[in-house]
Amino acid sequence: MKYVRQFLIIIGISFLGEGLKALLPLPIPASIYGLVLMLAALCLHIIPLEAVKDAGKFLVEIMPLMFIPAAVGLIESWERIRPILGQLIVVTVVSTVVVMAISGQATQAVIRRSKKGAEK
Amino acid sequence: MRDILCDSVFFGVVVSLLAYEFGLFLKRRLKLAICNPLLVSIVAVILILAVFRIDYESYEEGAKLLSYLLTPATVCLAIPLYEQIALLKKNSKAIMAGILSGVASSLLSILAMAALFRLSHEEYVTLLPKSITTAIGMGISQELGGIVTITVAVIIVTGILGNVIGEHICRLFHIEEPIAKGIALGTAAHAIGTAKAMELGEIEGAMSSLSIAVSGLLTVVGASVFAQFL
Predict the structure, then answer these.
(1) What's the rounded Cα separation, in Å, for the pair B178 and B87?
(2) Which residues of A touch B53 (CB under 8 A)?
(3) Looking at chain B, which residue has its C-alpha nearest residue A101?
(4) Which residue of A7, B98, B191, B225 lies most exposed, with the fewest beta carbons within 10 A?
(5) Residue in A58, A48, A41, A61 with CA at minimum distance from that of residue A7
(6) Looking at the predicted complex, does its ipTM rise above 0.85?
(7) What does the alpha-carbon distance between residue A46 and residue A38 come to, in Å, rounded to a whole number?
(8) B95: contact with A, CB 8 A cutoff
């Protein structure tokens, strides 16, 4: 019955996240409230890691599959996308590469600088 | 035959899982970057629906079970994050610097290109939340007067693109630290990028999970400021 309890906790926290979303007038989804609640509950030892670990790791592992339906759904908005397709592709590709390169480089630069500082 | 497929509640899930397995098979066999299992499975499902002339609603009837799991799975991203919490605290400065610069460069690059292509204000605000998780991005687009369906499309394409090219971009720009790789993937390509980060390693996955939440929240504020600029 281990998995029943684990799924109960995970779905229960998702439900709490949904409640927060309904109560607070911010454009933040239930999943992000839930993530923060779960992290807080783990850090404060309200929920021990073992109580959610197996089911949680399973869900995280199969996560890529969960994006398939939404991505297939893009065929439904094709008519709206087509007129500005060229611009959309350029903006998407360029800004994705730029953001990835800059955020990665910035993180790495600070890590390496503090490592050097620690060695001195 | 077609009626059976259209009426089935399991068809959507079966075809999605099969397509993903096919993607994994191609990846093992061909070892090409383009053979990303997620990308392959999306294309395969679209082709199957087109060939058998099954409309999206029938497919989605079953496949929505997979989408349903997305919220609990995102909640569970807190687990790898918690396991790496010591590392997170130790590197909090670097992590914040990375996510902040990523969010700023996302908004700036979109502003620059929108000006270059002479996009309308409506099209510009539609694109502003493109690097963050779908649910937050939809909210921002709506709030600012964007076209929500296009925002969703661009967010998903960004995620898939990040998932496919992430490793190569990191190599190209000499991003070697696992923490930096995770931040890059999560900040640029939200949860779909995080799926790739999880494959790279536990540290990468945890840092990427953190970036989804932090960059999403920063973009809520940033996008409303940037919306004034064009």
Answers:
(1) 11
(2) none
(3) B173
(4) B225
(5) A58
(6) yes
(7) 10
(8) yes
**What predicted TM-score, i.e. pTM, was given to this entire model?**
0.87
What is the Cα–Cα distance from A31 to B194, expressed in whole angstroms? 15
User: Cβ separation of A96 and B188 shorter than 8 Å?
Assistant: yes
Which chain A residue's Cα is nearest to B104?
A: A99
Q: What is the rounded CA–CA span in Å between residue A64 and residue B13?
A: 13
Establish how many alpha carbons lie within 13 A of residue B55's alpha carbon, considering only the half-sphere containing its beta carbon: 2
Alpha helix stretches (DSSP H) within chain B: 2-7, 11-30, 37-51, 56-68, 70-76, 78-83, 85-90, 92-116, 121-127, 134-144, 148-172, 178-200, 202-226
Residue B34: strand, helix, or coil: coil
Taking CA atoms, B229 is separated from A102, B61, B106, in Å, by 22, 42, 14
Kindly list the residues from chain A whose CB atom is less than 8 angstroms away from the CB atom of residue B23.
Answer: none
